Amino acid sequence: MDSFKDFFKLGTNKRHRNPLGTTDTDRHYRRKKLNLVPAMYKTKANSNHKIETLKKHSGRFICEPQDVAFIVHTYLKGVKPSPGEMKMLGGKMGIKFYHDSKINKWVIEK
């Protein structure tokens, strides 16, 4: 154990006083066992599960108002299409976004 006057010298090893790191949610919260999750397994806050599902598999989803707002903001640059117009999302994804007049809802499908 270092004395108080020796603790602040530059050559003193203080590894036992510093934990290994911080958690990913709060950089000020420190503990010995961090239980960190790798970035590849974390959920993305700016993604929509319906679109992520359609990227992998074909299908059809009816959009909620939150989904429509996300699609218009992210893929259509803030311009909502007219009800008779069909838009392709993201070019290579092959996902169509349109208004279905039979059910009077916005739909995405691949």
What does this structure look like?
With 110 residues, this protein is α+β, with helices and mostly antiparallel strands. It has a domain at 49-109. It is built from 3 helices and 4 strands. It has helices spanning 4-7, 49-56, 65-74, and strands spanning 60-62, 87-89, 95-100, 105-109. Strands 1-4-3-2 form a 4-stranded antiparallel beta sheet. A hairpin with a 5-residue loop joins β2 and β3. The mean pLDDT is 80.
Write the layout of secondary structure elements.
Layout (H helix, E strand, L loop, with lengths): L3 H4 L41 H8 L3 E3 L2 H10 L12 E3 L5 E6 L4 E5 L1
Antiparallel strand pairs: 1-4, 2-3, 3-4
The general outline is elongated
Distance between the amino and carboxyl termini: 66 Å
The major pleated sheet works out as: 4 strands, antiparallel
Weakly predicted, low-confidence segments = none
Category by helix and strand content: alpha+beta
Please report the number of helical segments: 3
Instruction: Using the CA coordinates, give the radius of gyration.
Output: 25 Å
Order of helices and strands: HHEHEEE
Please report which band the strand proportion falls in: under 5%, 5-15%, 15-25%, 25-35%, 35-45% or over 45%: 15-25%
Strands, count:
4
Give the integer mean of the pLDDT values.
80
Widest sheet, order of strands = 1-4-3-2
Classify the helix fraction into a percent range. 10-25%
